[in-house]
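User: Earlier you gave me the apo prediction for this protein. Now I'd like the version with pyridoxal-5'-phosphate bound, so I can compare the two side by side. Same sequence as before, with the ligand SMILES added.
Assistant: Got it. Here's the input I'm using:
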Amino acid sequence: MTDSLISSAYSQALEVIASVEPRIAEATRQELTDQRGSLKLIASENYASPAVLLTMGTWFSDKYAEGTVGHRFYAGCQNVDTVEALAAEHARELFGAPYAYVQPHSGIDANLVAFWSILANRVETPYLQKLQAKNVNELTEADWETLRHEFGNQRLLGMSLDAGGHLTHGFRPNISGKMFHQQQYGTDPETGLLDYDVVAAKAREFKPLVLVAGYSAYPRRVNFAKMREIADEVGAVLMVDMAHFAGLVAGKVFTGDEDPVPHAHITTTTTHKSLRGPRGGMVLAQEEFAADVDRGCPMVLGGPLSHVMAAKAVAFAEARQPSFQTYAQKVADNAKSLAEGFLTRGANLVTGGTDNHIVLVDVSGFGLTGRQAESALLDAGVVTNRNSVPADPNGAWYTSGVRLGTPALTTRGFGHDEFDTVAELIVDVLSNTQAGTTKAGDPSEASYVLGDGVADRVTSRSAEMLDKHPLYPGLVLS
Ligand SMILES: *Cc1c(COP(=O)(O)O)cnc(C)c1O
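And here is the structure of the complex with pyridoxal-5'-phosphate:
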């Protein structure tokens, strides 16, 4: 697609939007300007291609299509069937998965589908036996009571939040921490690394129905073959949530034991992080779970977002190109360069480095909380997010860490040297920021004082790099 086509597509779309609500057109233009002008280091974000973005803006949004391909509860779904079947086919080919369910609206929704599929598949309740024999309407209140009891008392073992796990892996504020008896495994207090022997010992003692692997803030690779061995030993289902690193799996950076798809019973993911697709989720599964996963809508999902499924198909087609493997390898190489950049300048990293797309900086050495560091960096045009470090003394709100990721800037074309410069700029900001005080003069976990001239110095150095690697280079809005 040529630059002028993309430019006129968006310029005209914005004109149409402006004719109804100009402030939305204006905010949309401003968002592009802001994204172009900042160093986006949020590890869960990326920039989808214009083809993916344009695919989302169509009349597929207007169609209801509850059900599955060829088996819908609404009439007139022939084109949605084409879209969903193609997205699923691309997903199966891309990940080598026996089965793919592309309806989940987000990563959290994909996990809900997985949890309910596992319960339906593995919990041997009288309810399920009766359900197979009878119409649901014939079940008695006592049957439902049994169901609630059995489904509500299963066990889940996941990675703890402060070790890098996700809140859907059994953390109390999420429903996964309420519907399951949950326990968590952490990382080694010395090295910050996963210790498989500790995971195995916990699993033997706790005997979970579901063993969850996967993370949002762990800067290392996971051996999923070992995780499966642990699951098999205790009779658990291995569920891997690859929401963060699906792009590294699709791009064949994680292969063999590091590729979750052949080892997990069920693999869930987002499609918008390192995978660089539209905002959404997906479930991949072994055949034995396919029928249960297919019931995701209406079990826990609303009607499928057909326009987003169409964009997933486009994104997966992109990810099947050899150029995506080059991209994924650069994401990992750039993370190494970023980590080296911090280490040579004396900063502390959780686990001492990275071998995926994430770098987790422990900012306590700068005398700052994660909250102060995040805000000071934002003042200098560096967009990050604060994150707990293992056994974080500042808790989950203020935290002691800043999480960085390379997928977005790698999409813009940043390479080895630029990521070293990014580390230099971040260290410049953090070492020239002082923790502030409250109005009463007490130490504050939130306020901070940025040194004179730092923001200007960092902003102009970033602007040079951002100008050299423009976002959507040919896109000029009229
Ligand atoms: C981002 C993330 C999710 C949630 O994705 P949403 O699309 O925001 O719902 C789930 N699991 C993990 C591991 C994640 O990193």
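For your comparison, keep in mind: The pocket of pyridoxal-5'-phosphate is lined by residues 44, 106-108, 166, 168, 214, 216, 241, 243-244, 270, 281 (CB under 6 Å).
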